[in-house]
Amino acid sequence: MEYAVTYAQLGWMILFVVIIGIGLFATMVLKNLNQLLKGVNEILEENMAELKRMIPNLAAVSDNARTITDDVRKLVSDGAQAVDQVTESTRETVLKLNRTTDNLGAYAVIIGEVAKVLVDLYYKEKQ
Question: CA neighbours within 13 Å on the CB side: how many for 92?
Fold first, then answer.
């Protein structure tokens, strides 16, 4: 007994198998989604009292967070300005210290020269 399958019949058979596969996959996805939603529903039911207590306070919490953020931003800005001022003061102090050191070096050279002249005069008087 020979049986011939046409391309049209083969196409319909493949299409039927694909549709059954998609149906089985969709059934598994819907089953998993149903289990997930049951878990979410249980969590919501367990925490419903807390949610009812928290939801009215969300606006106040949001306002407090905004206020705190603004305060922190202002403090950071003020801190940056203070750091800039300290940096500028430190730079000026270092520059003055360098100038003072240079002046002290010059004075030391002058005092050394004066001392040398005085010593030379003292030895010339003794001779």
Answer: 6
The contacts of residue 44 (CB under 8 Å, 6+ apart) are 51
Q: Is the pTM of this model over 0.90?
A: no
State the 10-residue block means of pLDDT for the chain, 127 residues long.
84 95 97 96 90 83 89 85 84 87 86 85 75
